[in-house]
Amino acid sequence: MQHDGLRLTGTHKATNLRTPARSKCGCSVLNRHAVSPRKAESKATLIRSNMMCAQALWGEFSETARRGLRELSQTHGLSVAKGDLLFLGKSWYITHSGLLRVAHCNRCAGIKPALLERLSDPAANRWVFRATVYKTPRSRGFVGYGDADPSNVSPLVRGAEMRVAETRAVNRALRKAYGIGLCSVEELGYVATAAPQSSEPRANGSNGNGAVRSEPRMRDRLCLLIRQHNLDPSLVKAYAADFCGTPVLKDASRERVEAFIAHLAQAAKEDRDALICELNSYAHPAEAKS
């Protein structure tokens, strides 16, 4: 009887090992070798959409960058059109919204940020946060730290250093929890210091978000989309300002403009007629003023 009990136990264990655990986001290692046809088709659709959207935004890029985008699409289900990824300086960067999407797809149990008062200096607007991500209710948690002060944030968010520090801490903790080696955009410090390095005045100026060199490229991509899909520039400009949540487009942050361009490219490809209807809704206020 004891021998039979051991045999039953061994059979039960072998059955558990052969049966892969259910994936929460289709990204687990056990399920990569047993992907359903419907899920494989959705992954392939996402990869094609990301490739087309990325090319519309940033033009042609290297094979290394293409492989990286393909891997990010397959592993984490990130979307360029939804603003989960940005391509800066020939490298991919994940955004805060992209990390939250990964956490949501994997049913993250909770995120707990905490201010480290001992390391912070409110008088100097220097803040340090610790964030803990709990993948499951019984998880010990994955810890990440983030700091922010006027020297390493964009002038556009000057005065909001506390929120930037919290976001950076949460991003680092999420990246550790889900094994994402990609740096997040919000953690970058050089974006804020890019403007002071350029002391000479440049044509067209800057909107103060530390992206002087990138603005002409974004503007060119937006103009290319307008010409490619035969859109009304004034209506697109009004739509962009509303999408970015600013009175005028030039006051919008670089990240929001990037997200709008990705959204516009995707909308024009999927349903141009619906996009035209959306743009026409911004023509009425202009006519009332005139």
The percent of residues in helical segments reads 40-55%
Element pattern in H and E: HHHEEHEEEHHHHHHH
Number of helices: 11
Tell me the strand order in the biggest sheet: 3-4-5
Task: Compute the CA-based radius of gyration.
Answer: 23 Å
- Strand percentage lies at 5-15%
Q: Which stretches of 5+ consecutive residues score pLDDT under 50?
A: 1-35, 190-216, 285-290
Quick recap:
Helix content is 51%, strand content 10%. The chain has 290 residues and is mainly α.
Your description of this structure?
There is one protein chain. With 290 residues, the protein is mainly alpha-helical. The protein is built from eleven helices and five strands. The chain has helices at 2-18, 37-58, 63-76, 96-105, 161-177, 190-197, 215-228, 233-244, 254-270, 272-280, 283-289, and strands at 85-88, 91-94, 110-115, 127-134, 142-148. Strands 3-4-5 form a three-stranded antiparallel β-sheet. Strand 4 (127-134) and strand 5 (142-148) form a beta hairpin. Helix 2 packs across helix 9, helix 4 packs across helix 5 (161-177) and helix 7 packs parallel to helix 9. It is globular and about 55 Å long. The protein starts with a helix and ends with a helix. 27% of the residues are buried.
